[in-house]
Structure formats: structure tokens, C-alpha cells
């Protein structure tokens, strides 16, 4: 392998590696994990999934530290206690939730019970948000809020304005508007509704707790000024920013295999380049430590031949018939030899007899 070929391969491989890395980064951005967020100011990563209470499928296999109920907060002077879950519905079985369809009872993430009635203060939401530097989780679309007349809402005006001309103009405008209102009422227009259709909602402010002896999470009820918006404060170590840990796609054996494969490739390619450019080797001798690998290959081939020949002896064959034939041939040849020897003896005796007679 020439260096120019190696450089060309690297030139083609690097863009592919870069594009693959960019695709992986895009995939990580697209694969957003619920109940997680990254701070836009500090870049810290927040994962609230440890606060999400989920009942195990098999209670017998659940760990000792696993919770079997949602988080609770005392209402103190409100007159009711609150039950909350983070990024998911509560694990309690709810029935007869006021003002909420039965199909949506299983999606309630926060509720309270008062006078024997169950009130939802928000449906599940798995997307925390940042309000400046405050990490907030919102639940909306709960039970209907109490009916509040619009007359109880205070109107806002300009305080401390000393411009008399503006006051006069405002008075003239108010008179004109009153006149228009009277005309419109006489004309048969309906008076706008004096009630606002609102639903209960929840705002949870999450604060970082660095105390190692503190529990995982503590939820405190802060206020509900209109019995429609409920404000809570949660202190937890999960609300402390950290570093996002990427999910490992390969197991330990896979990682070890990839490292070993890279090491082998570097060893072979680097050795070939060195043997060709520095040692001026050609053919198979370009491989690093060629003599070592050649000795190993010859040893393996010899062992294969030995094993194959030893196994071939146990194969069934016609050796028995060959032995019988060989024994028969050996016996016939031995008989022939015996006959030839007796003939020679007889001839010798005849010759001796003739000599004695003479």
C-alpha cells in the first residue's frame, strides 16, 4: 500500500466521519427527552425525571426507596392539602373531579380535596420552562375557577399627573364614552358578561438543594390569591444544573471490540507503510512481523494436517477384506515355497543315490 493511496483513503473517509458526527449531533437535538431542559443563560442541563413518580408494574420487584404515592404539600390556612406529581399524572386514583371530563381524570398532575370534593389544579405537562433564571413548571386547564364578577377587578389609572388639560380632556372623553354607552344600550345592544371563564392552574418554582442530608424533594405551598392560580416552591437536587450524559449505544463488550478493531487496523496499516517505505519490502513481506505470522501459519497448517490424518484413521474402510486377501496370498506363497524346497531335497537324494551306486 503506497502512502498516496493511504492519504487518498483518509481524504475520502474524513468527510464521511464529519458528516456522521454532524448527523449524530442533529439526532441528539431532535431526540428531546421529556422533563428536561437546558438553561439558555448558563447552558446547564436540568433533568426533572427523578421527581416523576411512577408505580412499578410489579410491586414485589420495586426497590425499597421507590415511592408509591405522589408528592404532597400542606395548605395551612388554605384549608386543604395538595397532591402533586412532576411531569406526569398523579399515581392516586381520582374520581368525581369537579369540572373535568372523566376521560381526563387520569391526566391530572395536581389536585386537592375540599368538603368531600376533588378539584384539579392542572393537567400534566412534561416541558419545564425558564423565566429568566427561574426554572418553572406550569400546569393548566384544571377545574373551573370560582366565578369572579368583573366589578371586583380594580381599574388602573395614572397616579400623580398634574396636567389639568389632560384631566379635562379625559373628563370630556369619559362623558362621550358614557353617552355612546347609553346610546348603544338604547339601541338594543347586550351588556357584556360580568363573569370570567377561567380554569385552575399551577405554577411550581424549582430551586436547587445542595444539602446531602435533605430529602430528594420537598414541595411547599406559597399562595393562591384568587383560588385559581396556585403557586408552589419545590427544593430538590434534581433542580441543580449539571452536564447532559449521552446515552451509550454500545455496551462494554461493544466498546472494547471497537477499540480492538481500531488498534488492529492501525497496526496493519502502519506496519505495511513502514515495511514498504523504510524496509523496501514487497508482497506478503510488507506485513508487520512477517516471519512471526509465517511461522504461526505453518504451525497451524501442520497441526491441521496431523489432526486430519489422525481423524482419517477412524473413518470406516475395507481394510478387513484387504487383510484377508493378503493373508491368503501369503499362505499360497508359503505353500509354494514349501513345495519347491521338498522337490530340491528329493533331487539331492536321487543324486546321492546314483553316486553311491557308481
SSE layout and pairing:
Blueprint: H1 3-30, E1 36-38, E2 45-47, E3 71-73, E4 82-84, E5 110-114, E6 117-120, E7 129-131, E8 134-139, H2 164-186, E9 201-208, E10 217-223, E11 229-236, H3 252-277, H4 290-312, H5 319-357
Parallel strand pairs: 9-11
Antiparallel strand pairs: 1-2, 3-4, 4-5, 5-6, 7-8, 8-9, 10-11
GO cellular component, one term: late endosome
Organism: Aureobasidium pullulans
Subcellular location: Endomembrane system
Structure write-up:
By secondary structure, the protein is of the alpha+beta class. Among the domains are: 1-31; 38-56 and 67-147 and 197-239, Cation-dependent Mannose-6-phosphate Receptor, Chain A (Distorted Sandwich), CATH 2.70.130; 254-322, no CATH class. The chain is 39% helix and 15% strand. It is built from five helices and eleven strands, in the order αββββββββαβββααα. The chain has helices at 3-30, 164-186, 252-277, 290-312, 319-357, and strands spanning 36-38, 45-47, 71-73, 82-84, 110-114, 117-120, 129-131, 134-139, 201-208, 217-223, 229-236. The chain has a five-stranded mixed sheet with strand order 7-8-9-11-10, with no helix packed on it. The chain has a four-stranded antiparallel sheet with strand order 3-4-5-6, with no helix packed on it. It is elongated. It starts with a helix and ends with a helix. The relative contact order is 0.09. Its main location: membrane. It comes from Aureobasidium pullulans (Black yeast).
Amino acid at each position: 500500500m503506497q502512502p498516496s493511496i493511504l492519504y487518498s483513503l483518509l481524504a475520502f473517509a474524513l468527510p464521511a466521519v464529519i458528516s456522521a458526527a454532524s448527523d449524530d449531533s442533529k439526532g441528539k437535538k431532535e431526540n428531546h427527552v421529556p422533563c428536561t431542559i437546558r438553561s439558555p443563560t448558563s447552558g446547564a442541563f436540568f433533568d426533572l425525571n427523578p421527581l416523576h413518580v411512577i408505580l412499578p408494574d410489579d410491586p414485589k420487584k420495586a426497590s425499597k426507596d421507590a415511592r408509591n404515592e405522589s408528592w404532597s404539600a400542606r395548605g395551612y390556612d388554605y384549608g386543604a392539602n395538595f397532591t402533586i406529581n412532576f411531569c406526569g399524572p398523579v399515581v392516586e386514583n381520582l374520581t368525581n373531579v369537579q369540572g373535568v371530563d372523566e376521560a381526563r381524570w387520569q391526566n391530572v398532575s395536581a389536585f386537592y380535596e375540599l368538603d368531600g370534593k376533588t378539584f384539579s389544579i392542572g393537567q400534566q405537562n412534561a416541558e419545564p420552562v425558564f423565566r429568566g433564571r427561574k426554572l418553572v413548571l406550569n400546569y393548566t386547564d384544571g377545574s373551573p375557577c370560582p366565578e369572579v364578577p368583573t366589578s371586583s377587578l380594580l381599574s388602573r389609572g395614572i397616579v400623580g399627573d398634574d396636567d389639568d388639560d389632560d384631566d379635562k380632556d379625559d373628563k370630556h372623553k369619559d362623558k362621550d364614552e358614557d353617552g355612546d354607552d347609553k346610546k348603544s344600550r338604547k339601541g338594543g345592544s347586550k351588556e357584556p358578561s360580568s363573569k370570567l371563564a377561567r380554569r385552575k392552574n399551577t405554577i411550581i418554582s424549582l430551586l436547587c438543594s445542595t444539602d446531602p442530608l435533605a430529602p430528594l424533594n420537598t414541595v411547599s405551598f406559597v399562595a393562591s390569591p384568587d383560588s385559581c392560580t396556585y403557586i408552589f416552591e419545590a427544593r430538590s437536587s434534581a433542580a441543580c444544573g449539571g452536564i447532559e450524559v449521552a446515552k451509550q449505544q454500545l455496551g462494554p463488550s461493544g466498546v472494547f471490540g471497537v477499540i480492538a478493531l481500531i488498534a488492529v487496523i492501525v497496526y496493519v496499516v502502519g506496519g505495511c507503510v513502514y515495511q514498504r517505505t523504510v524496509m523496501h519490502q514487497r508482497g506478503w513481506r510488507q506485513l508487520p512481523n512477517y516471519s512471526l505470522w509465517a511461522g504461526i501459519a505453518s504451525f497451524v497448517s501442520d497441526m491441521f494436517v496431523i489432526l486430519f490424518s489422525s481423524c482419517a484413521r477412524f473413518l470406516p474402510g475395507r481394510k478387513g477384506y484387504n487383510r484377508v486377501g493378503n493373508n491368503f496370498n501369503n499362505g499360497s506363497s508359503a505353500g509354494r515355497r514349501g513345495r519347491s524346497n521338498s522337490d530340491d531335497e528329493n533331487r539331492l537324494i536321487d543324486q546321492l543315490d546314483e553316486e553311491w551306486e557308481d
